[in-house]
DNA sequence: ATGAAGTGTTTCAACTTTCAACTACCTAGC
DNA sequence: GCTAGGTAGTTGAAAGTTGAAACACTTCAT
């Protein structure tokens, strides 16, 4: 539906090597991500929230425009608004008016939020090491970077070529 | 909390190479998975449902015990029950009593379900190729398999060592 | 000025996910 | 045979997540 990528017919099936790579990658990744989320749960964080907070803590003055934060954290503006409300109540962030553009707001990380993320970081890094990085050689790491740089480049290419705002859109057709 | 992996204190931070590998992998993966889900949306499928159906279609007689299916599709039994209800209404699967253990049920893929997945498969494979596999050399694929085999082996190790039923458990502590 | 477009929030309805029963059955020990 | 305890799977309610659309402002170009 909608510009079927030309080559859609007679797609060559995955051969054994390809299938193995795909399945191994996809399954191990899911398990690992579950595990990481689990490791963070003890700190009342999800990976998604950690990502938002980490981005914020890296930003100059630990503040970013809402839109920009949404973009780099790869979530919709609406979703960010929702999450911010929760994190605001936890006292980790607050909103601040943008003086130069009065439509805009900054998401600002509070000291409490910064302490929270600083406390979470070692646990998370430990997770990432134990569950992933420490099992890779330096060469592996470089290979991986190259591979996923390529993957990402192509995705970006396709998205720019298209129209939509990149986000999903779940069009479960008119089937009940 | 709960057997902190001994080395939890003074965790060495990720160096540049490690950080690059981790971020590139995690971000590109997320984008790619989003894209794949998007590609499937036109066929009224999510990756999760596709996974369930694919497992079923690969099983002998295209049937599996509910528990077993839940396990290999990496979802909880409860969740599978709920999803099955939906897929049953779509006419893709049905439940069948297990004669040898009358507590049990088989999930059975119907012909209609098989046709649906057969129709979806080329699109999905095309997605997987375009967005991932075709950007890897044969060597890349082998490297990837090795890497994620290792990652998975270690995860399994840790899980076996623990008590729970492997599934998350979200213990957001007693805060509010 | 005026209208179009941008920023961010909010409401709403749909959907997903988990949790804690709950039914039904099986197995073992006595 | 009975009973205790375990397993298979379902269920309903509660909680959480999500995106679309409507909204209130503000800015910007004419």
Describe the structure.
The structure is a homodimer of 176-residue chains. Helices cover 59% and strands 7% of the residues of chain A. With 176 residues, the first copy, chain A, is mostly helical. A 3-stranded antiparallel β-sheet of chain A has the order 1-3-2. The longest helix of chain A has 26 residues. The N terminus and C terminus of chain A are likely disordered. Chain A binds a DNA duplex (30 and 30 nucleotides) through helix 3 and helix 4.
Short description:
2 copies of one chain form a homodimer. The first copy, chain A, is mainly α.
Which features does this protein show?
homodimer, 176 residues, mainly alpha, Arc Repressor Mutant, subunit A, 6 helices, disordered N terminus, DNA-binding
Give the biggest beta sheet of chain A.
3 strands, antiparallel
Instruction: Give me the count of strands of chain A.
Output: 3
CATH topology of the domain at 29-138 in chain A: Arc Repressor Mutant, subunit A
Largest interface: A-B, 66 and 67 residues
**How much beta of chain A, percentage-wise?**
5-15%
Give the mean pLDDT of chain A.
85
CATH class placement of the domain at 29-138 in chain A: Mainly Alpha
List the helices and strands and how they pair.
2 copies of one chain form a homodimer.
Chain A: H1 16-41, H2 47-58, E1 63-65, H3 66-72, H4 77-89, E2 93-97, E3 105-109, H5 111-131, H6 138-161
Antiparallel strand pairs in A: 1-3, 2-3
Chain A binds a DNA duplex (30 and 30 nucleotides) through helix 3 and helix 4.
